[in-house]
Amino acid sequence: MTTALVTGANKGIGLEIVKKLVDQGLTVYLGARDPEKGEKAAAEVGATFVQLDVTDPESIRRAAAGLERLDVLVNNAGITGGRLNAPGDADVPTIREVFDTNVFGVIALTDALLPLLRKSEHGRIVNVSSTVGSLAGIPTSQSPPSLAYVPSKTALNAVTVLYAKAEPGLRVNAACPGYCATDLNNHAGYRTAEQGATSAVRLATLADDGPTGGFFDEDGPVAW
Ligand code: NAP
After folding, report:
1. Of 29, 149, 163, 190, which one is the catalytic site residue?
2. CATH number at residue 212
3. Residues with CB under 6 A from ligand 1
4. CA 215, 217, 221 angle in degrees (round to 5)?
5. Is residue 83 predicted with pLDDT exceeding 90?
6. 179-224 pLDDT per residue, tens
7. Exposure of 123 by Cβ count < 10 A (0-12 exposed, 13-18 middle, 19+ buried)?
8. 79 CA distance to ligand 1 centroid (A)?
9. Do the strands 220-221 and 215-217 form a parallel or antiparallel pair, or are they unpaired?
């Protein structure tokens, strides 16, 4: 039986990732920072709630200590920081908060769970990133020029490659969900959260000879 943990999964793309993994027969831990929201979502989709704030070391320690095995980690929790943070108008504390969740939280949680993932015969890590962080695309990107969100995803892509290099026994990849209507963008996206979950689920359930250290959306590899 394969066991998965998805962070930031009480709503949006994370919740849809959990649903799809449960449908495929996995035992899924639904990570959420708010116990009320997390318990409710987990009960609705047949997952087990785990309290997990990726910016809180004690929450990470408790969550890791409560797991006996883990095959799949999906680092999905993410924030934008709200205000634009365009060049010339940067609010550095907000940028730090965004990096805390989108980058440092991923590193802290992944390191805490690596001992379990290494024991798995089919260990997978999926980092939910975004093509807005693709360096190749930034010069012509139509996305808001946020100094918080955009570079946090660029950094997450680098983090993904470093874990893939360091852990050849695992498959470690970044997934882009596409522009999905969720609370993150006040439901401005043109895809559904369910559609957005597809690329992460595919990478979470990759065959043992599947790629590692890559960046993919639903249609295949994405430029760095
Ligand atoms: P969402 O609906 O706003 O969901 C974000 C989730 O992350 C929520 O469950 C939120 O919990 C959780 N979260 C935030 N900070 C957290 C923390 N410190 N610890 C644990 N959980 C935390 O957004 P979404 O669109 O589904 O985004 C999911 C991922 O997809 C993010 O990484 C985002 O960057 C990425 N993405 C989204 C799009 C898009 O178009 N939507 C495009 C590309 C990439 P609360 O409910 O408690 O706030």
Report:
1. 149
2. 3.40.50.720
3. 7-8, 10-14, 32-34, 37, 52-55, 76-79, 101, 105, 128, 130, 176-177, 179-180, 182-185, 189, 193
4. 50
5. no
6. 999 999 999 999 999 999 999 999 999 999 999 999 999 999 999 9
7. buried
8. 6
9. antiparallel
Going from the Cα of 153 to the center of ligand 1, the distance in angstroms, rounded, reads 13
131-134: long-range contacts, CB 8 A cutoff, minimum separation 24: 131/176, 131/217, 131/222, 133/157, 134/215, 134/222, 134/223, 134/224
pTM over 0.85: yes
In terms of residue numbers, what domain contains 215? 3-221
149 noted as active-site residue = yes
Q: Torsion over CA of 123, 215, 107 and 18, rounded to 10 degrees?
A: -60
Tally the domains of the chain.
1
Task: Classify residue 141 by burial, with Cβ atoms within 10 Å: 0-12, 13-18, 19+.
Answer: middle
